[in-house]
Amino acid sequence: MRLLLSALSLILLPLSVLAAAPPHDHAHEHAHAHSEHSAAAAPAASLGSHQHGVAQLDVVLEAGELQIDWHTPAANLLGFEHAPRTAAERQAVQQLQAALQEGAALFALPAAAGCTAATPSLNSPLFETHAPADATHAHEHEHEHKPAAAAEHSDIQARYRFTCQQPAALESLNLEGLFVRFAGLERLQVQLIGPAGQQGLSLDTRHSQLRF
Ligand SMILES: [Zn+2]
User: Fold this and answer.
1) Which among 19, 50, 18 is positioned nearest to 32, based on CA atoms?
2) Separation of CA 31 and ligand 1 centre (Å)
3) Which of 67, 130, 191, 204 has CB 3.0 to 4.6 Å from 60, enough for a Cys bridge?
4) What is the CA(117)–ligand 1 centre distance, in A?
5) Quick one: which of 88, 85, 185, 159 has its CA closest to 126?
6) In angstroms, what is the span from residue 9 Cα to ligand 1's centroid?
7) Domain map of the chain by residue range?
8) The whole model's pTM is what?
């Protein structure tokens, strides 16, 4: 009987080794699956375009309606991506949320265009206020697993809609202010659909002009 059991365990051992392998494969797939820009609405899937310093900006101008979807790693705007742990971090998140509410100022819309902003929609795991259970977890995490916590990543998604009385005044937008305000932001990958058609642009501090 004992012999049979040890023979079984010899057979089973390779199986358990195999069973342990898939998480690595999964992580690998995950790292490569997101090069195409899709499913912007799904926060989990959106982590694929997550590259610190880079953000996506989808801009549509049609019949006086300007829509801007901004999708960025939280690190670009905050300098960190974990759930806020300290009073200073909580304050930084609150200040960022307040700044992101001011879309017209953020994107330097010209006053002459007479744009009225709808309430923006802001989405990020960092903007969710959690029950105390989560706070406790974050606290433990900080003390027991500091290196692991550094591996956390979070995105921020902000959607804006403006109705503009004089869309002709929206010849261009100068987005330099975004780079000035958010030191972690180095590049904006822009997909623009406007009166002149569709174009893809890469903006940075030195080339921050968006022409419709
Ligand atoms: Zn990250």
Assistant:
1) 50
2) 13
3) 67
4) 30
5) 85
6) 42
7) 1-31, 47-211
8) 0.69
